[in-house]
Amino acid sequence: MFNKKNILIALSIIITLSFILSGCSSSSKNSQDSSSDNASKSVLDDYPNRPIEVYVGHGPGGGTDNFVRIITGLMGKDLGATFNVINMEGGSGVIAMKTAMQKKPDGYTLIGDSAYAVTTALGTNEYGLDKVKPICRVQSDIYALQVKKGTYESIDELVEYAKANPGKVRIAAVGALGMDEITARRFMKAAGVEMSYVPAEGAGAMHSALLGGHIDVMLEEIGPVVSYVEQGEIVPLVFFAEERLKDFPDVPTTVEKGWDLTDGIERYLMIHADAPQEIVDLLEASAKRAMETEEYQEYAANAYLNLRDGWMGSEEFTEKLARDIEIYKEIIAELESK
């Protein structure tokens, strides 16, 4: 039978056990939290400890290749890392994307791209936004139709000749079934002309083809050919923009001509969606710091890459790409129905 003394002893034992169990639980939780923190920290503490590969689906000398080399070079200085650029042309970036996505998603393989929305809308790219993650957008470039000096004096002359000679004008852009070709065909439709589209394997080859007279007009940004433009060998006839550019006040815009064509090349870095988020955040922050350096700003100004605000972080750019994919699906369906 329990007496007062036995009850007090029992209560004392219960209270003591309660404190012991509570301490164990707290210790276990703290241990788990500590392990979690250590695991999180270890991802970045050991990164990067070897070269980071960046696959570029376009040839050397073009806008995307130049962008990747400049931005990753500066990121390398910022992070104390080595970035190796690997050019893998074909499919408007699709081949490079597929190769990169087959690598281990450990943060050591990136993609430098500029045609993801179009290739995804076309269905040639099989990696949706559930499989690949944008790190950031750095550039939002402006297209121009450009010719060799002494061929066409104005965009009006080019359009007039193309209308009178269907299929005779050879218009080139980089790649097949990518952003460049879609934009070139949208121009033809808007201007009411029929031209022969020539897919160039790379920007450098296209520039040589124009200067050599093998093509008549090319869809290209100013940056990759700025030296030819400054020397007067290549002449821009029209910019795909809303307003005239202060550096080219005599060159009209597509909007002036009544053509709703203002899309331009966006250049960005991407990574496998399964890569650690801490690494994605680190690379995004590093790219932003690289873009803000005096060296990058000078390069952007010299290559006319500061005509539009280019920066978008990972989350914002992911949302934009999702919208763009749906828009391009509609545009492609419209072009295919004609």
Which descriptors would you attach to this protein?
alpha/beta, globular
Question: Brief description of this entry?
Answer:
Helices cover 47% and strands 18% of the residues. It has helices spanning 4-45, 63-79, 94-101, 116-122, 155-164, 179-191, 203-211, 226-230, 277-291, 294-302, 314-337; strands at residues 52-56, 83-87, 109-113, 132-140, 143-148, 170-174, 196-200, 217-221, 234-239, 266-272, 312-313. The radius of gyration is 28 Å and the shape is globular.
Descriptive notes:
The structure is a single chain. This protein is an alpha/beta fold. The chain is 47% helix and 18% strand. The chain has eleven helices and eleven strands. The strands form two sheets. The protein has a six-stranded mixed sheet, with helices on both faces. The protein has a five-stranded mixed sheet with strand order 7-6-8-5-9, sandwiched between helices. β6 (170-174), α6 (179-191) and β7 (196-200) form a beta-alpha-beta unit. α2 packs across α9 (277-291) and α4 (116-122) packs across α11. The protein is globular and about 65 Å long. The model is unreliable at 7-11 and 14-40 (pLDDT under 50).
Strand-helix topology:
Elements: H1 4-45, E1 52-56, H2 63-79, E2 83-87, H3 94-101, E3 109-113, H4 116-122, E4 132-140, E5 143-148, H5 155-164, E6 170-174, H6 179-191, E7 196-200, H7 203-211, E8 217-221, H8 226-230, E9 234-239, E10 266-272, H9 277-291, H10 294-302, E11 312-313, H11 314-337
Parallel strand pairs: 1-2, 1-3, 6-7, 6-8
Antiparallel strand pairs: 3-10, 4-10, 4-11, 5-8, 5-9
Helix pairs in contact: 2-9, 4-11
